[in-house]
Model the fold of this input.
Amino acid sequence: MISLNETLRLNNEGVALFNADEPSRAAEKLHSSLMGARSLIHRQGINSGNPTDEKCLLQCYEESRKHASCSKDGNGYFLFLRALVFREPEPQASTDEASTQALSVCCAGILFNLAVLHHKYWLKDGSSAYLDDAAVFYRTVLQIIKGNNVGLQQRNPTLLLLAYATHNNLAQIELEKGMVQRVNQRLHYMTGFLHTTKSTLLLTLSEREVEGLLSNVLSAGCLNTAPAA
Done:
């Protein structure tokens, strides 16, 4: 049976392969990590968990900032393409007693990494299949985040980062598909979200990421929306 340590290690190895421009091997590692996290959730059921383990799972490891990947599409839209590395628990920690909530956030992080991988390679070859897969992964991330209580979202930097980056990247996909009104709604939501969580969110972002995300939010009012039916 796969352990929590193994699950996190597989994710981190997948991110390393992602950064080394090996998408097929990266996707294989990330899918294995996702299956491990899901099996842990099913095995543990409802568990109050250990706060130390939750901290390991919910905090994005600083190392991932060294590989910050930002890009803009052909329309100048900023994309957050940094895959997340999770801090693995200390050897003395109980690594199989993280709460179901913490493990679900782990799943969200791995799914986000898969989404970013597909999004990045859509930028390279323009295949609509990559973009469609990325959208599915992003929407699943948001479903998981929605299942966590608002208080946790507002105090946890990694959850905030996942929510904001996912909304941002999904808006670009919707823009690409001509869903301008939905893009405006999403960017306006991000504006309100930023006002209430800015201090916590900024803990996880590089200066370049902050500038790019703010540029997208400020562009919301410049998009032409079709009149409501």
Summary: Residues 100-125 form the longest helix (26 residues).
